[in-house]
Amino acid sequence: MKKIFFSIALLSITSVTLAAANGLIPSAIIENESQRSIKNAVETGPAIKAYLLVKDALVAGNGAAASEAGTALTAALTQLGKEMATPAERSAFSKDGKGAFKSAEAIGKTKDIKVQRKAFEELSAHFYNLIKATGTSSVLYLDYCPMAKASWLSDNKAIANPYYGKSMLSCGSVKETLEP
Q1: Residue 15: what pLDDT?
Q2: Does residue 50 sit in the same domain as residue 24?
Q3: Which of 13, 100, 119, 148 could anchor a disulfide with 106, C-beta 3.0 to 4.6 Å?
Q4: Which residues constitute the domain of residue 164?
Q5: Can you give the C-alpha Rg of the chain in angstroms?
Q6: 53-79 mean pLDDT
Q7: Cα separation of 66 and 49, whole Å?
Q8: pLDDT (average), residues 134-152
Q9: For residue 129, is it left (φ>0), alpha (ψ between -120 and 50) or beta?
Q10: How far apart are CA 72 and CA 105, in angstroms?
């Protein structure tokens, strides 16, 4: 019986290893599986990309582009919510995913840059917590503006402030680096 169990376990490990080597299983699922199950198997990339589009539009002071990006982010967050697999991920999404969705929706419904920037504060707080819980598919920087007393995520180490745009473009500093 022990030999059969050992043979089945060995065959399973070999199959998973071969599937991973052939690109059939994302490496994030296999890597360190015994410790974290499928934590980074959740595809955060589309939500991160949409969030960064909102941030970039606010940096540029473009309310129309921010509105469009906010709408795209709501769609990406809806999809992300469907992919939550573990209890911890579902719990994080229940609070912060829904909060981020509500803020992104508010940004998408207006072209008023002041309203969008206010909603972006809440969006960024919720999105940061969500990314901390689910992981990131790319390197992100948590930036902080002491004038706005608010943070945001960026994919670039150089500061580009979404709360003040061109009037105070470089106001802020990197507070944390989030890695995949």
Answers
A1: 38
A2: no
A3: 119
A4: 39-178
A5: 19
A6: 97
A7: 13
A8: 95
A9: alpha
A10: 9
> Looking at residue 174, what DSSP letter applies?
E
- Please give the helix or strand (H or E) that residue 43 lies within, else none: none
d(CA 88, CA 90) in angstroms, rounded, equals: 6
Using CA atoms, how far apart are residues 142 and 132, in angstroms rounded to an integer? Answer: 11
Same domain, yes or no: 88 and 116: yes
Q: What does the angle CA 107 – CA 159 – CA 111 come to, to the nearest 5 degrees?
A: 20
User: Which of 105, 166, 175, 125 is closest to 145 using CA atoms?
Assistant: 175
Is the pLDDT at 54 greater than 60? The verdict is yes
Residue 42: its pLDDT value, please? 61
Please name every residue paired with 118 in a beta bridge, in sequence order, or none if there are none: none
Residues 23 and 111 in one domain: no
Tokens of 177: 């680096």
Q: Which of 86, 94, 88 is nearest to 29 (CA)?
A: 86
Give the pTM: 0.76
User: Which residue type sits at 89?
Assistant: E
Q: What is the mean pLDDT of the chain?
A: 82
Cβ neighbours of residue 102 under 8 Å, at least 6 residues apart? 122
